[in-house]
Amino acid sequence: MSGEKRNALGKGLSALLNDTPNVQPYQNRNKETASPAEVNDLGSVNEIKLAEIEVNPFQPRTDFDEQALTELSESIKLQGLIQPITLRKIGAHKYQLISGERRFRASKLAGLTQIPAYVRTANDQQMLEMALIENIQRENLNAIEVALSFQRMIEECNLKQEELGDRVSKNRSTVTNYLRLLRLPPVIQASIRDGELTMGHAKAILTLTDPAKQLFIHQHIIKEGLSVRKVEELVREMQKAPVKKEGKQPEPVSYQLQKIQDDLASKFSTRVKLKVGSRGSGVIEIPFLSEDDLGRILEMLDW
After folding, report:
1. Where are the domains of the chain?
2. Is CATH 3.30.70.920 the right assignment for the domain spanning 13-122?
3. 140: helix, strand or coil
4. Which residues contact 161 (CB under 8 A, 6 or more apart)?
5. At what angle are helices 291-300 and 211-224 packed, to 10 degrees?
6. How do the pLDDT tens digits run along the chain, 303 residues long?
7. Nearest-CA neighbor of 146 among 228, 68, 60, 55?
8. Region for residue 158 given its phi and psi (left: phi exceeds 0; alpha: psi -120 to 50; beta: otherwise)
9. Closest by Cα among 159, 163, 90 to 124
10. Which of 232, 228, 236, 284 minimizes the C-alpha distance to 257?
11. What are the distances in angstroms from CA 263 to CA 186, 222, 266?
């Protein structure tokens, strides 16, 4: 490993970590026999006992693939841990993970007693930001996980979209496209998370502003396995349809009624409206966009 500083976790992270220019190479590959060393300057790699490390409470990812962890642990047994983890010192012989929890877990599985690590100083907000940045750089994240991490960085780290883009080396339009996914109905977000819809499908759906139409398109994608191009064509056809303008806007519904509306919308894959009068009586409206769509809804109602 050369002394040249790497920037693998994204633009702007180096400044957060406050790296020194000369990162000393980690030489000792035999973790079982290596003797613990004193913590050196912030840019060097140190040997830290696994028993002295606690996980980062701000780690945004809590699920780890067991097979992938096992494969990594086998690699560590043979080659050692090539990429050090990053810690902050919180007491005498006590450290907290900033990034690298997967490597930390795999090293435990491999039976190591100590691990190479960078030791940093960072406050809790910086810890969250660094953990989120590392999480975003993972190749196997789905689009919803990325969007949620972006949202957390904006809300909890007080970042603007331009600043967020700088942190993760993405332009503002890319960041915006991910954040827009979180405006979709929950059932569509779940399909993106589960790999049933691609980012291309989602972008096409987002060109429609009506949740009922979004849910209608989603239903057809799942049922018929539509390609992104076919979805784009279907969206264009729907946009040509005349839009009925309503004169008087409805009164805003309460949080409880809104929750019921959202749950029913997810169940029927179409927008549901609740109209409640002053005495508590009211009407449930379940709109449909075609005869086939009506038939689908009637089947769900056991009609």
Report:
1. 13-122, 255-300
2. no
3. coil
4. 154, 172, 175, 176, 179
5. 80
6. 444 433 433 333 343 344 433 333 444 444 443 334 455 544 578 899 999 999 877 666 666 778 888 888 988 888 788 788 888 888 888 999 988 888 999 999 999 999 999 887 666 677 777 777 877 777 677 888 888 888 878 877 778 888 888 888 888 888 899 999 988 888 898 899 889 999 999 999 999 988 888 988 998 899 889 999 999 988 888 887 555 555 555 555 565 677 677 777 767 777 777 887 777 778 888 877 777 778 778 877 877
7. 60
8. left
9. 90
10. 284
11. 9, 19, 5
The two structure tokens encoding residue 139: 């190749």
DSSP track, 45-78? EEEEEGGGEE--TT-S-----HHHHHHHHHHHHH
Residues 6+ apart with CB under 8 A from 297: 268, 270, 286, 288
Question: Considering the entire predicted model, what is its pTM?
Answer: 0.47
The DSSP code for 34 is P
CB 99 within 8 Å of CB 93: no
Which residue of the set 54, 66, 71, 101 is catalytic?
A: 101
Catalytic-residue membership of 101: yes
